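User: Sequence in, structure out. Go.
Assistant: Echoing your sequence, followed by the structure tokens.
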Amino acid sequence: MVTVNVIDTGHIGESDIFTVYSSSRLGKIYYVATYTQDTSFFCVSALSPDTVVLVKKFKQTNIYRLRQYESYRFDGTDGEDLSGTRIESNKPVAVIAGGIVDIGNNGYATDKDGALEQLPPVSSWGHTHTLAPFIGSDLGYVFRIYAGPMLTTVYISDNSMSIVPIRPEEYYEGIGDKVITLISDQPVMVSQYIVGNQRFGYHYASVIIIPPVTSYSSNVTFSVFGYAGITYSVAYYINVVMACTFVDELLLDNNVAVWDDQLSSNDEEMCCVRKAIDTGEHCVEHANPIARFFVYVYGICSPSCVSSFVYPGSDVYFNNETDGLNTTLPTRTGKEVIVTEA
């Protein structure tokens, strides 16, 4: 088994990394997650010949036919958030979404930060997700909860203990600075954004899709990539999220790890251990075979620049058969073409 990461370092001060899903984890129904950015986009890539793709955005449905390994890119207008766009296909496709944030001029018009992520299909969504804060990001994090075609209710285990309704195909946005668990009555997709240091009054942001807890793994081997091509100082970290019961026996590179800190949710059910880490190959595993966890890797540039990146340690978290998810979608009103396989 291998893990493939895509590294975007197209410009000094701009970066993000995402983990590529294996073809067996792709699906036929997606909802787009981007952000309100100066430039936002999503890209649909076909694995098979004669792939028909429907893109429904703002009650308008367009149909595209893709050849094998062909991709089609959809660009938003200035400042447009493409979140909630629905993608359907007759064969499995890959969807990548994101954008570039221009942070202003003041003599630094070319300073940007990228936010890119491969999206999971609806068949990989789940009901329970746990978020954790990033070391080096004193401003906390932003998260979004994306609903599918059903009215969705989400319980947020932060200090407010909120119960949030989300209308079909819309999202809820919140902020956090601690370990938070989200529990929903319908399957959802959750994205989390680093909110980093300020430069000239703006913040940088990178994005990661948070898997449901039912998709966690017991052994993750991952790479921490050096920040090539720039002279700024970058600090590298990992977060490991898991049930608090199993934290003590967690191993890093075959040794009992000494973590920088340990955080827990309000109910002390879920914990996050965090640690600064060197570049290179690493492995997180657990002595207990029933223990499961989620590893994500991130880097934050010093206050003199605006870049950050974050990515999961492996693609194994998104299992198309987890969480009892029923992918049969209800009939929808309005003009829409449904694609079925011949």
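User: And one key feature?
Assistant: Residues 102-111, 319-342 have pLDDT under 50 and may be disordered.
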